[in-house]
Description:
Layout: E1 2-11, H1 18-26, E2 32-37, E3 43-50, H2 51-64, E4 69-78, E5 86-88
Parallel strand pairs: 2-5
Antiparallel strand pairs: 1-3, 1-4, 2-3
Helix pairs in contact: 1-2
Amino acid sequence: MAEQRIVHFKGNVQGVGFRYATTRTANDYDVTGYVKNLPDGRVELVAEGERKEIDAFVNDVRDRMSGHIRGVSRQTAPASGNYSGFGVKH
Length: 90
């Protein structure tokens, strides 16, 4: 069953290639959604797919960018089906 995960990363996560790395990482997983910078300095990642795929994807992003992340918050909701791929949202 598909779900949506909304993840907020805080720390030194803007201006360090976070969105680019996240988008490239998404190519390795069966997920849709987006990544974007927030005005408060956090990065928001919204991913939809099967739970195991999302878990692996988010963990991979966290591992790749661990030197920049100081905190992570997550929430889960039913998948919206609004995304056809994964990309950067402005």
